[in-house]
Amino acid sequence: MDVIREYDPHNTKSYSLDEAYLDIGPYLVLFIRHKTYTHEQIRDALHLEGNFDEDPLRFLETQSSSACLAAVDQVVFRLRQHVQKATGGLSCSAGVGRTHTIAKIASDKNKPNGQFVVDPASTLDFVRSLPVRKIPGIGRVTEKLLQQVCNIQTGHDLYEKRGMLRFLFQPSTAELDRKSTR
């Protein structure tokens, strides 16, 4: 966690022993703006500046998509290497996405010890193509029910047939399922 906090000293959240979420936006801004900075210089700048005074998303939107994706790939690879070195060899998988949920799903894509970046421009296509079992909250039993009763195989199918969920599940479950498909 200490290594991860070097990349996001202010917003890192640990959800379990082996799972954390962070916002690498401010790190990316410095990484792109100051190409000659070392990790240590970026880390120190993030700590000194306290709350980052610039909207990282606004800055990143002014950069080319390919430059941002390349920077994300490099930063995440660097982070994973730092974790491995600091822990004496533990590997680490990483997922990058616009939301925690997308990032969590992406982190499963190249396990073990891999990374997967969901380009913000293709997030909808990514979710549509997901097998329903990969969607958080859908377990083995629900997956089987969705597939056998409704022929729902993917995120796209789930969205297209979302009205049927009210007939299969208790109202509170159907409502939760409907919200998770937005």
Short synopsis of the structure:
The protein has 182 residues and is mainly α.
Structural notes for this entry:
By secondary structure, this protein is mainly α. Helices cover 54% and strands 7% of the residues. It has eleven helices and four strands. The strands form two sheets. A two-stranded antiparallel sheet has the order 1-2. α2 packs across α3 and α2 packs across α5. The chain is elongated. The two termini are 31 Å apart.
Q: What best-fitting shape do the alpha-carbon axes yield?
A: elongated
Mean pLDDT: 89
How much is the radius of gyration in Å?
19 Å
Weakly predicted, low-confidence segments: none
The end-to-end span amounts to: 31 Å
Count of discrete alpha- or pi-helical segments spanning 4 or more residues: 11
Strand tally is: 4
Helix content: 40-55%
Q: Structural class, judged by helices and strands?
A: mainly alpha
Strand content: 5-15%
Main sheet summary: 2 strands, antiparallel
Question: How are strands sequenced across the largest beta sheet?
Answer: 1-2
What's the order of the H and E elements?
A: HEEHHHHEHEHHHHH
SSE blueprint and pairings:
Elements: H1 2-7, E1 13-16, E2 19-21, H2 25-33, H3 39-48, H4 56-61, H5 65-86, E3 94-96, H6 100-107, E4 115-117, H7 123-129, H8 140-150, H9 155-160, H10 165-168, H11 171-180
Parallel strand pairs: 3-4
Antiparallel strand pairs: 1-2
What are its keywords?
single chain, mainly alpha, 4 strands
